Structures are given as structure tokens and as C-alpha cells.
Amino acid sequence: MRHLKLVLAALLLWMGTTNANAQKIAHIDVQKIMTEMPEFKAGQAQLKKLYTTYQKEFKEMQDAYQAKLKKYQDESKTVSEQENQRRVKELMEMEKNIAKAQQDIQAEAQKKEVELMKPIQEKLLKAIKDVAKEKGYDYVFDSSGPTNLIVANGPDLYADVRAKLGF
Q1: Is the whole-model pTM more than 0.90?
Q2: What per-residue confidence (pLDDT) applies to 20?
Q3: Residue 132: CATH number of its domain
């Protein structure tokens, strides 16, 4: 922490002595503007619908497994040992299929999320770059995360980027 303060102090001192070469810096809350984009809202609605469908399918698989398990448990004393072993194998296969389905569902959901969000992120990035270029900024920092640099006195490009995106 002390080292970070020293580096920041040196950076501020250096920036103060190089006014002739000063870089123009701005900031924007990328997360905030992205969540307001109509495309983002539409993508989120699509993802919610997809997740609901996947949850329903997964629940149906689990319910079928539970029903078969209950049936087998109820009938286990009235069937042969060989039949019970066959049923145990069948249940184990169902468990394996359920676990694979869960992994497949998660992978497909992540793939779909990337597929939907990538064009939105690209559109936002282009708008930020365009506004920064129009306004003459050399650097634009994302102020939406705790680990990103926030320039407290730099101008916020939020309104300009929002206007560039048309909403």
C-alpha cells in the first residue's frame, strides 16, 4: 500500500511538471451505460428466457429420476436381486446423464451469453472511442469497477456516449 502511494505521488508530481505534454483523460461508467442500452436489455430478456427453458428441462430430468428411484425403492423387495442390480445400473446411468446435461446446459448458456453480449460490447467500445476522438481525449478509463482507475476530476463521457448510441 505504501509503495502504491509513493508511485501515485511520483505520478502526480510528474504529471504536474509536464503540462506541455499533458494527456487528456476522461472516464465513463461502462457497466452503467451498458445496462441502459436497449440491446443489452433485449439480450438479458433472451438469456432469461433461455435459462428458464434450461431450468425446466433440467427439473423434468430430475423429477423423472426421482420418480423412477421411488418406484424402484417401493418394488425392491418384490423383485429379484438381478432385477434390482439392473435397476441400480439404470439409475446410475440416469444420474450420469443428468450431470452431463447440467454441464452441457451451463456451457451452452455461457456460449449464448457471449454470443449475445459481444456485439453490444463492441458497439459500446466503438461509441466510446468515437466520442473520445471527437472530444480529443487520449485515454478513457472505466470507472465501473473497484480495480479500475477513476479520474475524479476528468470529464465523464457518459452523456456523450449515450447520445452517440442514440438513447
Answers
A1: no
A2: 46
A3: 3.30.910
